[in-house]
C-alpha cells in the first residue's frame, strides 16, 4: 500500500494535530501549566482565583488572564459558589481529540517504517 492510499483511508495526522493545536498553545506557557496542574490536583471541587493568587504570588489580573486562555480553549470550566468562581479541569472532549491524533500518528508511523 502506498502513502497516498494510506492518507485516503486513514485520518490525516496533520489535520488531527491541527484540531489539537489550541491545547498545545494554551499549555505552552509555564504559568498556565502550573495553574492547570493546581486545578487537576484540586479535583472536582475546583480552585478559586484567590487561592491561585495566594499560591502563585501572581496578581489577580494575571491569574484571570491565564484562566481566560485555558477557559477559551475549553480545558477548564468555572462553577460559581456565592461570589466566588471555582475553576476545574474538564478535558474529556480533548482526550478524544488527542487519542485520535496519536492513533493516526501511530498508524502512519508503523506503515512508513
From TrEMBL:
This is DNA-binding transcriptional regulator, ArsR family. Keywords: DNA-binding, Transcription, Transcription regulation. It comes from Treponema porcinum. The keyword Acetylation does not apply. The lineage of its organism: Bacteria, Pseudomonadati, Spirochaetota, Spirochaetia, Spirochaetales. SUPFAM superfamilies: Winged helix' DNA-binding domain. Residues 12-109 form the HTH arsR-type domain. SMART domains: HTH_ARSR. InterPro entries: ArsR-like_HTH, HTH_ArsR_DNA-bd_dom, HTH_MetalResp_TranReg, WH-like_DNA-bd_sf, WH_DNA-bd_sf. One of its GO terms (molecular function) is DNA binding.
Amino acid at each position: 500500500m502506498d502513502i497516498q492510499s494510506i492518507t485516503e483511508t486513514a485520518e490525516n495526522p496533520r489535520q488531527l494535530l491541527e484540531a489539537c493545536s489550541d491545547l498545545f498553545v494554551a499549555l505552552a506557557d509555564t504559568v498556565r501549566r502550573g495553574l492547570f496542574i493546581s486545578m487537576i490536583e484540586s479535583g472536582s471541587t475546583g480552585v478559586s482565583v484567590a487561592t491561585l493568587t495566594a499560591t502563585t504570588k501572581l496578581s489577580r489580573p494575571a491569574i484571570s488572564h491565564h484562566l481566560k486562555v485555558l477557559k477559551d480553549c475549553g480545558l477548564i470550566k468555572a462553577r460559581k459558589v456565592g461570589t466566588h468562581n471555582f475553576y476545574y479541569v474538564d478535558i474529556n472532549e480533548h482526550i478524544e481529540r488527542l487519542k485520535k491524533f496519536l492513533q493516526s500518528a501511530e498508524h502512519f508511523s508503523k506503515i512508513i517504517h
